[in-house]
Amino acid sequence: MGLENRGGSQGWRGGAGEFAHDYMGHxxxxxxxxxxxxxCFLPTISGTTDTNSPCSPAELRRYYWASKHSIFSxxxxxxxxxxxxxxxxxxxxxxxQFMSRYTGPKARINRRLSTQxxxxxxxxxxxxxxxxxxxxxxxxxxxxxxxxxxxxxxxIKYYYGLGERQLRRYYELASASKGNTAxxxxxxxxxxxxxxxxRAGFTKTxxxxxxxxxHGHFRVNGVKVTKPSYLLxxxxxxxxxxxxxxKNLYRGVIxxxxxxxxxxxxxxxxxxxxxxxxxxxxxxxxxxxDANIVVEFLSR
Length: 300
Prior knowledge:
Blueprint: H1 17-24, H2 32-39, H3 42-46, H4 57-80, H5 106-113, H6 121-125, H7 145-160, H8 164-176, H9 181-190, H10 193-200, H11 206-214, E1 218-220, E2 223-224, E3 237-240, H12 244-255, E4 265-268, E5 273-276, H13 291-298
């Protein structure tokens, strides 16, 4: 029995051919389920080319599931990944891969933000910025309130090596804590393990500190930590791994590195250890940034 003979089925009058005819004639836009399960397979169901011929509900169900497994499954595999059954975790070859740390030109970031974000020698030499943009007839640089807030937020992200989700998480921690939210945000960033390793004097730059931590060169309270985002507390002791090649490497870096002594970090050059005396304060923030604008920007 065709669907047009059912009582009360006014929407199905004329059988499935009405949907197929509308789709082929571009007079209606049915859903993907109706299009793939009914319209695309109607000639096969009815055995004829008449688009108004009825078909049974069993045939509709059978060809609907056939179309779902044949069309939709291949489409999902093509869109998500080259291997089926992985949920898109493995991308196709040639797809862009995103990293959590910045690996692009560092001097460009220094010039754009007008701050010594990256401390490598090449980035410092190439960070000089002209007053006007390049070109014969340049336009003046104008920055609004949104652009200024975005620039301050990018300073924090590039300086401490944070992602957008990490910065949002630090903001939530800072807003949930007592005191000034802007100061809490910056002190949380200063407590990161890679930042403490850099400011103590083990390395010259934060990317070097991050690489050493990931490679397992440092111990925190006698335990190996490979997370650069590990938040230190007062009393934590950072010690270099007991290998002669690592000690010689870092002693050479320390000898050529000039670091100002800090009140909240005690650094022992003989034993290659750094002790966090206390939590950083507003005077210990190393990045010149307006954190209040960043807090207003993140709170929207």
